């Protein structure tokens, strides 16, 4: 015989708040916990005036099997949830699909999540929330547009080289970052060349002001001065950029020669490759670099939970 809360839920009515707090359950992966996660949990917590919010979080084995690789470990994700003020209790090792047995075990009255159907990769059904929706125990929350774990990862991937340099500057070694010797040196050379180019362009305005002063002093006509100034500055920048390109190419060739020499020495000494992780890798155009990832690392389209 069910409780009054369970009977009310089965009839589609809100449970009587005088009986006990309404136990609301939300689940997810919560990787790189962000304000979009927090807002969804806030909505779940506020879905009833007197709600007790339980939050289930899938472990690494389940997540990697049905969704893909995470940045944070399961323990890190659990701990992030424990520090969210809307969460009353964290349930580790949460199931991918909710069933009646799980609801009964934790005395759950309602399950809160956004209403979009999530394909059940485990094969148990078309929607992981199909069961709770069918029995009238589902509370809809709204997603926060513009933020998701996949979006954050995409930003990092997009600016990969900048974040590699950032961490190198903060004391991480190239081996910590999985970066070859050539890659590390090439990134640093390119950055220094870009900084030098930016510094020259920054002083371009000051050079123009000096030209203007000289032209005014010499009584040169304004249009004639503008034409000459543009030609002088353009000529200087063209010579500078050509010099930077030649210098950058020379530095990269020296790095490659050094690496090739080290590998050749290893072959002569050992009769085979020394097994160094220093790969021969060079791209002429930094911006055209491509990075490839395994299909199962992270599914951007299926940003479930």
Automatic annotation (TrEMBL):
Residues 276-305 have a biased composition (Acidic residues). Residues 25-154 form the Cytidyltransferase-like domain. It holds the Pfam family CTP_transf_like. GO terms for molecular function: choline-phosphate cytidylyltransferase activity; phosphatidylcholine binding. InterPro entries: CCT, Cyt_trans-like, Pcy1-like, Rossmann-like_a/b/a_fold. Gene3D superfamilies: HUPs. Keywords: Lipid biosynthesis, Lipid metabolism, Nucleotidyltransferase, Phospholipid biosynthesis, Phospholipid metabolism, Transferase. It catalyses: phosphocholine + CTP + H(+) = CDP-choline + diphosphate. Residues 266-305 are annotated as: Disordered. Pathway: Phospholipid metabolism; phosphatidylcholine biosynthesis; phosphatidylcholine from phosphocholine: step 1/2. Plays an important role in the biosynthesis of the phospholipid phosphatidylcholine. Catalyzes the formation of CDP-choline. Belongs to the cytidylyltransferase family. This is choline-phosphate cytidylyltransferase. It comes from Lithospermum erythrorhizon (Purple gromwell).
